[in-house]
Amino acid sequence: MKHEDVVSTGRRIIDHIAQRTLDLGEAPMRVDASVFTDPERLAKEREVLFRRTPQVVGWAGEVAEPGDFLARDVDGVPVLVTRDEDGVLHAFLNACTHRGMPVAPEDSDREGTTGTGCSNARRFVCGYHGWQFDPAGSLVGLPSRPQFPGVDPAEFGLKKLPVAISAGLIVVGLRPDVQVEGALADVEDAFAGFPYDRTRAVVSEKFTLKANWKLTVDINLEGYHIPFLHRATIHGVVLNHGIVDTFGPHTRFAVPILGFEKLAEFPEEHWPARLPMVNVQTVLPSTVLIESPMSTTMLRVYPGAVPGESVIHMTEGTWEPLDEQTVAATRNNHNTNKAVLVSEDFPGAEACQRGFSAGLDTMVVGMGESAVAHWHETWDKALAAY
User: Fold this and answer.
1) How many CB atoms lie within 10 A of CB 248?
2) Which domain holds residue 210?
3) pLDDT above 70: percentage of residues in the chain
4) Number of folded domains that form the chain
5) Nearest-CA neighbor of 180 among 286, 96, 301, 57?
6) Does any domain span residue 125?
7) Entry pTM
8) Residues 331-375 pLDDT 10s
9) For burial by CB atoms within 10 Å, which of 140, 150, 267, 310 has the most?
10) Tell me, what's the pLDDT at 111?
């Protein structure tokens, strides 16, 4: 965070701790449970929010150098992002133009990393028949070329997708007509203090939940549940004296860690860039960026095949150079964060889904869950414009 944001955020949270309060919404909200169970709603969400809306796929630092690439699954679409030898950023459908096989595995890794889909390469070779492509997407190698008379390699480069760096994040469009330039302009200023331009992924895992994708996003957006769902882990450490900010459709939700108020004992100019809090930044439609004093986590949340299913790609990154010590610390952070999600948050979302699928017809969102309310209003507004 920029220092002025650090100070303003710190002051607000210290005041909430002293007053035993938190940011509140205007009024409770009711959400019809069909938003978690209706197949027609799911189809509309996938079309509007995931095919027509720019998607965050990573931090800018993951493709910072010539030859860097990342291969990611984005709501079932295989995507390849590259930076060519001239430093130009590209995105493609990660599918060989011969028979459709990916040309870069999603488990590609730099040394010391796991499951990130990131590495560096001068050529992408399809594992099926050996067709070769350069980082600009051009077909530069066609084995047994005499067997393809009339096939012009210039016509068989990788299929291009829109791509841009916005607010320090890599943003792609899954269709050629999606506008990605400035997609996150609303949060450019709020994200300016985060060094996402040098953040790199260290470890990534995929989870499939028996819960609607919106419930999977919701679990990150309020502290009301901490004393109950997290009583065995972070209860008493993470406090429900949170703040909520909106930036167009996007949000910041932050809750303090025990002892936060001791910051007041130090001059504000010495307050750290990483305050002792859990800072949850969510960008349209469903990417969750979680910053804590120790960790940098990205959750890319997508719908599953049916309304009661979601897919989560959890990636732990670091701002620091990828030396042995940093990689080990980042892996440890990933395991710590994953333990809370897998043992408590994910089962909680799945349990809620069972209730709605069984016939519960309404979800109630309290005034202390205003980020949850904001996102349901935002998603509904996007669909209403369809």
Assistant:
1) 12
2) 3-53+186-384
3) 100
4) 2
5) 57
6) yes
7) 0.96
8) 999 999 999 999 999 999 999 999 999 999 999 999 999 999 999
9) 310
10) 82
